[in-house]
Amino acid sequence: MTTKKDDIINRAELLQQGIATLQLQIQQIKASGEVAPPGCCVLRYQARGQKGTYWYYKLHATEPIFPATQPEKLTKYKHLGKAGTPAHVNAVI
């Protein structure tokens, strides 16, 4: 029969194993190439031109972290172009 203390110890060990596994996976992902900063995602947006509607992609951050066109300014967005461009594919990967 396990005691309450044994149960807590077993759960703590499982959590430590889970954390160690996640830390290893994070290291492997970082070692595999460039990783987007925390809080970033790839978004699709629509632009209308004279000849129709176009879909483009951007890297969107929760805070301004990307260099802007104005010196010493930051923006939340990094333009990636249309689907299949190298910038878009790299961001998705």
Brief overview:
This protein has 93 residues and is of the alpha+beta class.
Structural write-up:
Helix content is 38%, strand content 31%. The chain has two helices and five strands, in the order αβββββα. It folds into two domains: 1-35; 40-92, no CATH class. It has helices at 4-31, 86-92; strands at 40-49, 52-61, 66-67, 74-75, 77-81.
* Main sheet summary: 3 strands, antiparallel
Calculate the mean pLDDT score and round it. 90
Helix content: 25-40%
Cα distance spanning the termini: 49 Å
Sequence stretches where pLDDT stays below 50 over 5 or more residues: none
Helix and strand composition category: alpha+beta
SSE order: HEEEEEH
How many domains?
A: 2
Tag the structure with descriptive keywords.
2 domains; 93 residues; alpha+beta; elongated; three-stranded antiparallel sheet
Q: What are the SSEs and their pairings?
A:
Blueprint: H1 4-31, E1 40-49, E2 52-61, E3 66-67, E4 74-75, E5 77-81, H2 86-92
Antiparallel strand pairs: 1-2, 2-5, 3-4
